[in-house]
């Protein structure tokens, strides 16, 4: 037997750190029998780059962040100070040019700045990606990332 109030508290703690999205929290909150797990809900598994993947806003390429995790639907980024919720064009590359750079449009879904105001992390949902860039993203996901079982 589970305590619905305890579940809500756990979910409320997972949301600000980007472990779950608002959508996932709503579904889990409504699903009291807990027959589906968070992993089942995520159609696109998060993967973790084995190379340093840099993301930058195309109109401000000098402002960069490092990708922490990535999937076909979104990415988690550290060191990226922009927290605009609107969908903007971004570029993804790596410093060693191991994979072909690609572009996508993404919107910030959550943003967190640490207590010292030095490091910020953010979660972005991919809102649009052209087929050639999607192919590059899939190549990156298949060959240069690792997935960890949950």
Write down the overall geometry.
Answer: globular
* Uncertain residue ranges: 1-5, 32-37
Structural class: alpha+beta
Number of strands: 8
Share of residues in strands: 35-45%
- For the report, how would you describe the main beta sheet? 6 strands, antiparallel, barrel
- Determine Rg (CA atoms, Å): 16 Å
Give the H and E element order: HHHEEEEEEEHE
Mean pLDDT figure: 77
- What is the assembly state of the chains in this entry? single chain
* Cα end-to-end separation: 22 Å
Helix content: 10-25%
Number of helical runs?
A: 4
How do the strands line up in the largest sheet? Answer: 2-3-4-7-6-5
Keywords:
4 helices, disordered N terminus, six-stranded antiparallel barrel, globular, 150 residues, alpha+beta
Helices and strands, with pairings:
Elements: H1 4-14, H2 22-30, H3 38-41, E1 48-49, E2 53-57, E3 60-70, E4 74-78, E5 88-94, E6 102-113, E7 120-128, H4 131-143, E8 145-146
Antiparallel strand pairs: 1-8, 2-3, 2-5, 3-4, 4-7, 5-6, 6-7
What does this structure look like?
Helices cover about 25% and strands about 35% of the residues. It is globular. With about 150 residues, it is α+β, with helices and mostly antiparallel strands. It is built from four helices and eight strands, in the order αααβββββββαβ. Strand 5 and strand 6 form a beta hairpin. The strands form two sheets. The protein has a six-stranded antiparallel barrel with strand order 2-3-4-7-6-5.
């Amino acid at each position: 037997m589970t305590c619905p109030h305890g579940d809500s508290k756990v979910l409320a703690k997972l949301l600000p750190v980007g472990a779950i999205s608002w959508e996932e929290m709503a579904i889990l909150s409504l699903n009291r029998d807990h027959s589906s797990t968070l992993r089942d809900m995520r159609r696109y598994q998060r993967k973790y780059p084995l190379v340093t993947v840099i993301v930058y806003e195309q109109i401000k390429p000098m402002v960069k962040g490092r990708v922490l995790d990535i999937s076909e639907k979104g990415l988690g980024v550290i060191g990226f100070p922009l927290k605009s919720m609107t969908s903007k064009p971004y570029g993804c590359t790596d410093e060693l040019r191991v994979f072909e750079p690609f572009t996508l449009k993404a919107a910030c879904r959550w943003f967190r700045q640490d207590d010292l105001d030095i490091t910020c992390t953010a979660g972005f949902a991919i809102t649009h990606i052209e087929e050639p860039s999607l192919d590059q993203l899939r190549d990156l996901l298949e060959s240069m990332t690792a997935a960890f079982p949950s």
